[in-house]
Amino acid sequence: MAYLVTGATGFIGRHLVATLLEKREGEIFLVVRDASQPKVDRLIEGWPEGAEERIRVIVGDLESPAMGVEPGWIDEHRGQIDHVFHLAAIYDMTADEARNEALNVEGTRHAVELANVLEAGRFHHVSSVAVAGDYDGVFREDMFDEGQPLPSPYHRTKFASERIARGETLIPWRIYRPSIVVGHSETGEMDKVDGPYYTFGLIKAMRKLPGFIPLMAPDMGATNIVPVDYVANALDHIGHAEGLDQQAFHLTAPRPQPLVEVINLVARAARAPRLSLRPPGMPPVDVHKGVLGAALRAPALAPLRRILLSPTGIPDEVLPHMSFVPVFDARRAEQALNGSGVTLPRLREYAANLWDFWERNLDPALHNDTRLREAVVGRTVLITGASSGIGEATALKVALAGGTPLLVARTRSKLEALKRLIEAHGGTAYVYPCDLNDMEAIDELAKTVTREHRVDVVINNAGRSIRRSLKLSLNRFHDFERTMQLNYFGAIRLVMGVVPHMVEHGGGHIVNISSIGAQTWPPRFSAYVASKTALDAWTRIVAAELLGANVTFTTIHMPLVRTPMIAPTKLYDRMPTITPVEAADMVAEAMISHPKQINTLLGTAGEVLYAVAPQVSDFILNMGFRVFPDSAAARGTENPDERAGVEMRVLAALTRGMHW
User: Would 175 disulfide with which of 248, 263, 614, 646, CB 3.0-4.6 Å?
Assistant: First the structure.
């Protein structure tokens, strides 16, 4: 089997290629511009094993006849290509008509020419539900030219390009119409801010409001969203199924998704207040019809729309296209996928992944933090626990701001994946796998990094948490040993290995990720809190000793963060938490301002209460100890305590909107 793919470096294209590499055999020819070769090389590193042996790059140009592929190559491969997947296009509602015409219409004509002269087995054209335009009603897969209004250059050129695929292709063809394609349902990976992602900045701003404040919103119509992995898997399966030629398939959600509901699912993941139903008596807002619809589309009102939309970050051209007039019937695609194992996940199942990836990688604020850039540009930052959670988010922040993160954790493969992600964003990173429970390994790490780099900042982030009462710990002394080993001994061993290097080079900064528990002393955390408190005490003493050497320390008493470390404790599922990116913001502030401590209101209140009324503090903590029992994991049982679940729901309701 041999494949030719256009647009392989695009978002859907690279996921399709990865799927073909994983599920199919044979060579895969990628038609790309000469300037895209470095991008292909980076993609090959992240594609399934063996990609370098199966991928063949063909230099071409979407704007040239037969895509500018050399005639000699065409003659050599005529009749040998089984499938041509055409994905190269421009997916941008803000692009002008000339650009859409050149890439979407003429580009498709040139791809069809190439497939025809190659005498390929089948031509697969990735179109879009945009061909339905503003059709009022159910748009079926067997429908195409129904006289529907086509309101934008994107709609018109996607319609024209599908007409070319249908009318000018001389070999069997299949057409696929995805709806709005968002990030990967498991990783959240997305390549740019587009479509519904334009609302994410607004959701982030909403997060500053208390959760109990009702935010009224009108009914803004329905959208249709699918994750890129579903689209890639559907393309692969339908593309290889028998008896489906000369047909179109809708790769869409089976039912329209109310836009307010979509925003609320993402807001929930972001811990932002949700939008309530529209105010009583307020009619639905139809952005496609009536006076409001005309106002949202009228060119004369564009300057006013831009002024009103400026605070939200939503482009004027995109707003009318966040919801759809037609409803898309996808029964033909569903039937073709029946029994394949390719299923569409529900948005509520992966909305948190979309938000997390956007917040880590696409939030414009990541690129606009001039204070962080001034603090880290040209500097090297060693980060332990960099393979996930706070460490991963911090590494991305540092790299995007112009610093060079040194990535330290046990698992090389995870660090390499993060390194590739950083490099894809134009940054630089280095990988240093190390087991921070091993003192000799830490010594070797310190020697290596100080020999190969000028280490300016060390972020002690790696840690282990255990929630278990003393009663259940009497026969588990190793709980105390292993938390102390990683959280205390490992951290100070690394600092002691790097400090002479910092002193020699004129100074440096150490950021220790401690815990709010070291201020509030929560029951059942004696092993964990003791290790963090030991690190706090050591830091206070050593900071005074090294002050004259220009080596400074910051201790961050971190609140509860939604990371893999807390995942085993189901009690936390309904507790107020911050995201790893918010935690990384605290780490960034430590690198910028070098404060002695970064605390939260709740942590400071706990310290003050114990200082002025220790018995009252003990009484309150004992109440919590009796109300919230040990977890099922701590007790060694499989079924979580139902009483704890009820009590946590009550606590969650009382603390909604509390970010600590």
Answer: 248
